[in-house]
Every structure is written in structure tokens, then in C-alpha cells.
Amino acid sequence: MENFFKLKERGSDVKTEFLSGLTTFLTMAYIIFVNPGILSAAGVPFSAAATSTAIGAALMCFAMGAIANRPLAMASGMGINAVLAFSVIGFHQSNVPWQAGMAVIFAEGVLIFFLVMTGFREAVMNAIPMNLKRAIGVGIGLFITLIGLNEGGIIRPAPITLVSLGDFTRPYVWVTLIGFFSTAFLMSARVKGDILWGIAIASVSAVFFGVTSLPSSFLSRPDFSAFGAPFQSPGGKLALFSILTPSLMTAVFAIMLTDFFDTMGTVVAVGEQAGFVSKDGVVSDAKKILAVDSAAAAAGGLFGASSITTYIESAAGVAEGGRTGLTAVFVGIFFALCAFFSPLIEMIGGGCRISNGEHYCLLSSAGFAVPPDTMAPGIGDYFLYPITAGALIIVGALMMKTVKEIDWDSFDESLPAFLTITGIPLTYNISHGIGFGFISYVAVKAAKGKWGEIKPLMWFVSTAFLISFIISGR
Question: Could you give phi then psi for residue 381, rounded to 5 degrees?
């Protein structure tokens, strides 16, 4: 194990990697419950989506750890799953069968894998200017913080101001604050495993305040009926052939673009924190990382779990000291266990839904239990995960340090960086923020006559982003 994962070489050990893997898992465990809830609204059986989410994440975490040997965890991506369920498929299969939607994910994953094998995806990553790479990391840090504030109820949606201060009389906000301040205190005191202990303290407080409760059972039976979705035949037609229509082919392109750049931003941001990004912005083992990530997108469609991607929550494990692929392997083990112990993980996830101002918890003595098949978000609905929210806010703060390295004195460097930093959290989409940065970089550099500083791939990708924005706005 020492030789395979290079633990000593990277200044780590098995205990540190285990704690890092557990920390990363706990910060992203919400996907086990949210993803099936979203996909079930489009007709995917909830139990099947839950199994696919857990097993798919486990297998791809194993692959990332064994092949790339980096502390990058993987699971079904938020955002794409909602687009798939509510735009591509539609509520309860009103547009296309859910199997055809999974075929869209499978196809875009195969296309991205081809781009990785040809070296194109890595070339695009290397073509990104260093100031933009730093801005991507800072923007993702703000994004993580925004997610944490939102999931913890510290802020909430508002009709005119977009966001407003949350209701501090709610017990789930108290859980968030307890998790945040306990983690901050432990981190200041240099306690080993500070983020993990903070999550544990928040879990205990959640039970105490009735935000969650101990489950009545601990075991659940896996449901593999969603596996092989693109090759199933709903209505007598192979799902994979159903995507050969203009609307679904457009969906393949749009989702592929999002998948393509979401991972780039995540890898650069986590890589700088973990120390496998050089001073000139080159990511070590980039091709291996991107190959696994691309194969994971296709695997997500094949398993019926939506696109599986690299998670920015990996930064939480890196903050705990994770430096090798063993962290990802441990995350995979925890995900695999979820296929059998999801009720217990549901308690730790502490998920709540806010609907029309009312508070509903998945498992709560202080609220109303929400059946799994009603957990799909509707208009005015949003989810809260207060137990891990404090940890996300802390991790976001840790990712701010590279902001000082951006060249703020040069307008043609600072403006694209600023639009990237603000675009990622304000659009709630990593690739959209990157698109703002790319397009503005090319435009400002061209306006100043600095044509030689614009690499050909920047022109190509910026044009692709511009076309994508125009298409998505129609």
C-alpha cells in the first residue's frame, strides 16, 4: 500500500487518508439522498436511483484512487442531474423516457473521454492563463461557501434581493452555527481531524434539537434495476437510439460543455490546495484524472445515476491532510456501504426541505417526515443540509488564499479574473463562471492589441462558450 499510493513521499499515512476520506464523504453524503429525489421526479425508481448513486460513486472513487492516485472523490453531479430530470426528461417522463435521458449522459461521457484520449481536454486545461486558473479556485471557494450558507439556512432565497438572512430561530440554523464554530475553534487549536470532529459535534446537536433522529432501521436492499439504462428498451425502442433527435443531440452538447469545464475548475482548485498543481498551472497526472472523470460521466449514464463527476467537496479531505488516491478509495468504501446502510447515512446527512416557507425534515421529531418519492424539489422548494454546512463554509475560506496571487494591477488580467470569481457563485455553476472569464479574457486582450497572448484554444473555447450561452438563453 505504501509503495502503490506513495504515502510517505507525499507526507501522509493511512490514518490521515482514512480521516480525510471520511471527512470528504460526510461533506458530500447529501448526494445519496438528493440525487435519487431529483431523478425520481423524472420517473427513475427511487430505490434504483439510490443504489445507482451509491454504487456508481463507489466504483469511480476506486478508479480515481487506483489510476490517478489523487485525493479526488466522485459522485453524481449536482446541477446536471436537475437539468437531466427537469429539462431533458421532464417530470414523470412527460417528454422522453428516463432511460433515454441516461443515454444522453452516456453519450456525452463517451465524447468527453474521446477528447481526453486525443489530448484535447488536457491541452485546453494547459491553455488557461494562470490568473484565470487562480480565479477559478477562488470562485469555487466562494461557491462552496455559498452552498454552505444556503444548506445551513444562514441565508435563504428572496424574491427581490435574491438572498436574505435566514431565520435564526430555526433549529437547523443552530446546528449549522454549532458545526461552524466548533470546527473553527478546533482548527484554531490545531486539533487533528478538526473538520471531522466539527461534523460529529453538529450531528449530535442535530439529534438534540430534533433536526434529525436515529433511524428505526439500519439496513436496506440494493435495487439494480436502473443499471444498463441506455441499453434498455422502453416502448420497444433501444434508449440509446432515442437520442438521435435535434433536441436530444443539443442536450448532449450542452451537458458535455458543462461536464468538460466543471471538472477542470475543480481539479485546479483542489490540486492547488493539495500541492499537485505547479507554479505555472500544470496539473500533475492531468490525463489520468481527466480520463477517469470522463469515463465516470459515461458510467453515470450507464448505471442510471446521472453524470458522475469529480467533487469540489474533495477539498474538505485535502484540508484534513489527504494527499493520495487512498483518500478516494476510502470515500468509495463509504459510498459502497451506503447501498446497504442508507438509513444511517440519512440521519447524518440531516437533510431538510423548505417548501413555501415550511420546514420538513427527512427524519425529524420536530418536523414532518417526507416520503422519499416526494423529495423532488418543486417551485419555491430548496434543500438544507445543516450538519455538513459549517464544514463547507470553512473549506471555502481555506480556498481564498490564492486570491492574493492574481495580478490585480493589470486590467486585462484582473477583469476576467473578477468575472470568473463572481460568475461561479452568482450563476451557481462552475462552467458558466469559467465561460465569463474566458470570453472577457479574449475580448479585453484583443481590445488592447495583445493578440499574441491569446492562445488559439482560448479563441475556440470562448467561441464555444458564447454559442452555448446563446443556445441556452433561447
Answer: -100, 145
Using DSSP bridges, classify how beta strands 352-355 and 358-361 pair: parallel, antiparallel or unpaired: antiparallel
The amino acid that residue 85 corresponds to is A
For residue 199 the three cell numbers come to 461534523
- Could you give the CA distance from residue 391 to residue 184 in angstroms, rounded to a whole number? 9
Cβ distance 49 to 358 under 8 Å? Answer: no
**Cα gap 22→152, rounded to integer Å:** 20
What CA–CA distance (Å, rounded) separates 378 from 473?
A: 22
pLDDT band at 120 (very low <50, low <70, confident <90, very high): confident
User: Is the backbone of residue 6 left (phi > 0), alpha (psi -120 to 50) or beta?
Assistant: left
Would you state the pLDDT for residue 355?
Answer: 53
Alpha helix stretches (DSSP H) within 239-353: 246-274, 286-303, 314-319, 325-349
- Position 418, amino acid: F
What is the CA 335 to chain-centroid distance, rounded?
A: 15
C-alpha 459/C-alpha 92 separation (Å) is 40
C-alpha cell of 333? 468504501
Cβ neighbours around 403 below 10 Å, total: 17
- 23's torsion region: left (phi>0), alpha (psi -120 to 50) or beta? alpha
Amino acid at 465: F
Cell numbers standing for residue 247: 433536441
* 291 close to 119: Cβ distance less than 8 angstroms: no
Three cell numbers written together for 309: 463527476
Distances (CA, A) of 118 to 110, 177, 311, 428: 13, 47, 24, 30
Question: How do residues 226-239 score in pLDDT, each as one tens digit?
Answer: 999 999 998 788 99
CB 434 within 8 A of CB 424: yes
| Sign of the CA dihedral with 20 first, then 23, 28, and 32 last | positive
Closest CA relative to residue 200, chosen from 27, 28, 329, 343? 27
Q: What does the block give as the cell for 437?
A: 472569464
**What does the alpha-carbon distance between residue 151 and residue 21 come to, in Å, rounded to a whole number?**
21
E-only strand ranges, 16-64: none
Of the candidates 146, 195, 207, 199, the residue with the CA atom closest to the CA atom of residue 176: 199
Calpha distance 225→240 (Å, rounded): 17
Q: List, for residues 343-402, the tens digit of each pLDDT value.
A: 665 555 445 655 555 544 444 333 333 333 333 444 345 557 788 788 888 888 888 888
The three cell numbers of residue 362 are 427527512
In this structure, the strands spanning 74-76 and 352-355 are: unpaired
Q: Model's pTM, two decimal places?
A: 0.71
Which three cell numbers mark 260?
A: 468538460
Cell (9 digits) for 154 = 444562514
Kindly state the cell numbers that stand for 307.
453524470
